[in-house]
Design goal:
The complex is a heterodimer of chains A (about 120) and B (about 325). Chain A is of the alpha/beta class. Chain A is about 30% helix and about 15% strand. The radius of gyration of chain A is 15 Å and the shape is globular. Chain B has ten helices and eleven strands.
Amino acid sequence: MLNGHELIQVGVNGEEQLVPDFRKNLSFKDLGNLISEADTAICVDSYLQHHFWANRKRAIVLFGVSDPLIFGHPENVNLLKDRKFLRENQFDLYYSNQLCPEAFVSPQEVMDIVNKWQ
Amino acid sequence: MRATCGIPTKNRYDTLVLTLQGLAFQTTKDFDIIIVDDSDEPKDLRDLREYQCVFDLFNRYGINWRVIYGKKLGQHHSHQIVQDEAKTEWIWRIDDDEIPEPDVLERLLYQGTDAIGAVGGLVPQSVYLSALPTDLRWNPIDDLSIPNIQWFWHPDGQVKNVEHLNSSFIYRKGKARYELGLSPAAHREETIFTHEILRTGYKLLVEPRAVTWHFRNGHGGIRSHSDARFWMHDEHIFSQRLQEWGVHCDPVYPVVLDCGKGDHVIVKSLLPELKKKYKKIVLATCYPDVFDGEEQISIADAYMRFGNLDRFNAYRFMIDEKWTGSLQSAYRKLFQL
């Protein structure tokens, strides 16, 4: 996957570390600096996709039950497995009915996008 | 000089008794009490043990008290009932989630000389109140986005002339009527009422040594009303009053972001357009770091200044509009960009 790229995980305390370089609890400014140096992000529908978009950087965004036509940016690569998984009330509280692993595309599909991009 | 203390109450028997206890221990006992009970299921307060105690104190101190049942039309109607029923020159209005320091009534009445129409004290929303900013205009009627000076500690301790009062104050009976066209939420009711008194030629004062703690009960009172249309209706009436009064206000546009950090980022991208369209913006945020360098207030401050915030909420807007477009376009529509 790396293929000459540096892979950095960003998150907060308590989250599982997945790669050696895990930067936690970055401020808005520090994360902005990191985004400006990055080529892309792989993230779910969260604040990070908006921050990349605002910095005019293209992110690969995994959507599950929230609708990328509402919450996504066309400038990003929005991956949605199937609209049948979209929750009925898109504007319900963010944390209700969110856990639905089968609604997401597989890791291989994400990798295919990354490989095409390189 | 005997006064009448009027307390509109709605579904707040838990905090009303604390207010009444604060009244019982005033340094002057020369007042009557009228409680206007607008509760959904009113109780006979004489049956409640804690109320029996304060009523015993009132009887001992010669403080007359009575309960009138409200019209279920909002606290402005209850205040008008008090004004109609009061037999005294001065009326002290206080909310059912406020606790006055023992010297409040005495200090307020002391300021009530012939030229004065109403006197308010401080009504801090928290015991951690901050000092009055030196550059703050003192309750101008032409800009209600400016924080009310009754919310701050005044280091100089000086009485100040203002153009409207908030929450708890004494006023001269019969100089103005409450605006009964307001919704049950009664947004801006005291602003309209006190400014009307000012317009009859009397002065309005803030006496900062008279402190009434406002412990903002999370339920009951105006918080019984959650329909955002009430606040919009009341803002419209207030705007009409401003026009009648010949008060010119530069429009102040509230941008209230009681939402996630991603929404903050999206709105930040719209900020140049917002600034271009609206002369003055009040920006209330949950994540001030996103708007580093911009003047911001907290969501709690926004609630104090603007009342119910639902009308500023993009998610409320999208639900009501059955929105299917993008989040960014929803914000654009909400902000009329």
